[in-house]
Write a structure and sequence with these properties.
The protein is α+β, with helices and mostly antiparallel strands. It has helices at about 1-55, 60-95, 100-115, 130-135, 140-165, 165-175, 175-220, 230-240, 260-265, 270-285, 305-320, 345-365, and strands spanning about 250-255, 290, 295-300, 335-340, 370.
Length: about 375
Amino acid sequence: MKDQNKAFEIQIDTRTGDFKEVLYQFEDQMIHACLIGAIIQFAVEAVYFFIITFANGMFVSMAEYIVKYLFCPLLVNALGLTVANLVHRYKRSKNYNITYAPIIAMYTLAFSMYLFHSAFDILVILFVIPMLVSVIYGSRKVLINVAICSIVVNLAAYYLTALILPGDFKHHRGFGPLQLVNHLLFIIVVMTTLFLSIRLAALENLKYTLFENILNAGYLDPLTGLRNRKALREAFEEVLKEKNHDTPHSLIAIDVDYLEGINASMGRQVGDEYLKALGRILMEIKNIKPFRYEEDEFLILTDRDIDAAQDLCYQIVDAFSYTDICRGKKPVSLSFGVEQWDGKSSISDWIRHANVALDEAKRIKSTVMPYEPSM
């Protein structure tokens, strides 16, 4: 079972690596989107500057407007996006799960736009966009960190407004504690909603995981990981329900010889290693359904005729003889009984015939024995 767990962990690591690469690509796209947003912001500011200039609507001097609403936002965005890109490249080279780079880039845009245009209260929405994006990580911890950053950046932009914006702009904005409280409450409500959404998604995933574990526990043998008798019964029923009986179906009964002697002389743990080794071999073979039927007996259901099923038995013998557990230890052999379904026999008769052939193989010391009615 240890080897199976190791193989499972390798699969998980591979999937995690694939998902991590998807996150890296997503973060790249988000940073590029923020760069485009910064360019659009500057273009809109420039167009607005020319419009109010020709319309004689300038409420500050031209030099002051260029510095505050064109140069300063451009400088803030350039610095923020540069930092975000450097963080992303560094953490990606170190194989971090989360780089936070797109979050930094988004807060840069939110900060610059809100700082210089805070008369528009709706711009507070910009501070919850990074929270929405952070949901992709599926982590409540990440969401809380981003939400705290939203509050901090909003507070910083809010109070820096008093130092940068003209007095009449602040008056128009309704600058005051109540406005700030409304902004913070909005951020907290969005954060709470997203937090609960991630929590519910995690609980839903846990529910299905537990259900799958319970289901597998009823159908899987805990030692070998193969399907058990209950799963065997359902597999047989599927064969019986088939309307096209032209497809051959063979049943192979496998017995691990001398297992009782090994358990007595070398310990049950060694005997279990032989069983697990055989289970791993059977799981690697394609187009068969292996089951652990009894203590040292396995059954294989396969869509092969009796001749092809016998060839499969010899392949299993070869693979089993080359396993690490069979090297340098007391030799263990396998015996096989094979029976092809005639399309009429019941499940119990089919299993009985395979076991009769298996007993005959063990009696005459033959590795593989097909069933004969005379047995």
